[in-house]
């Protein structure tokens, strides 16, 4: 767990978590476990992936009780016709939200549209842009185009940056390394974990990543392994700005 000494520093706690779309078998206990994870770790910014209509409804109801908001749109606008596969990649936060927008990412030939949610918050005297996404899992050519779109969005952004999500890419992939290098040139670094975040992975390499502007100082990092609601482990970090 994040140390009690670190908790005394004024900081932000950030997490990314692919919660697994189990639409057919979902029940509210899953939503309550995610809320418990949020509260137990005093998380300020939580990026979720694979959020379907059922869990979105329950999460919104519970988040309202504890003064958090959930920002982000579904991948398809005709959401009631595609409930099972229609997902959000929302940003949940207890901080003041200035603006939010959901962008489309390249996705063809995969029929599942991919998106990135951008949320701008105010923290202390800083303005921070949070990007949360979930990239394609089938085609490397599609991932390459999605990474380009992400970079194009970020390079136009003058705010501090937090980028997170399920990239479906490990750091031994050339296209991911090139993307990471582009971000480094813009003074944005990746939080290196050297731990698997997909439970079924054979190797200690994460596919769920968090990137931070250099002005955001990493204090602690952890892969949480005591939560069983998904086929992924959440990543939890503490930062100081």
Which tags fit this structure?
241 residues, 5 helices, alpha+beta, six-stranded mixed β-sheet, 12 strands, Deoxyribonuclease I, Chain A, globular
Could you give a short description of this structure?
By secondary structure, the chain is an alpha+beta fold. It has 5 helices and 12 strands.
Low-confidence stretches: none
Strand order of the largest sheet: 3-4-2-1-12-11
In percent, how much strand structure appears in the residues? Answer: 25-35%
Shape, please? globular
Major sheet details: 6 strands, mixed
Q: Return the structural class.
A: alpha+beta
Descriptive overview:
With 241 residues, the protein is α+β, with helices and mostly antiparallel strands. The protein has a single domain (9-240), classed as Endonuclease/exonuclease/phosphatase (Deoxyribonuclease I, Chain A, 4-Layer Sandwich), CATH 3.60.10. The strands form 2 sheets. A 6-stranded mixed beta sheet has the order 3-4-2-1-12-11, covered by helices on one side. Strands 5-6-7-8-10-9 form a 6-stranded mixed beta sheet. It has helices at 4-7, 28-40, 53-65, 140-155, 174-185, and strands at 12-18, 45-49, 69-71, 91-93, 96-105, 114-123, 126-134, 160-166, 188-190, 208-213, 217-223, 235-240. α2 packs across α3 (53-65). The chain contains 5 helices and 12 strands. It is 24% helix and 32% strand. The two termini are 21 Å apart.
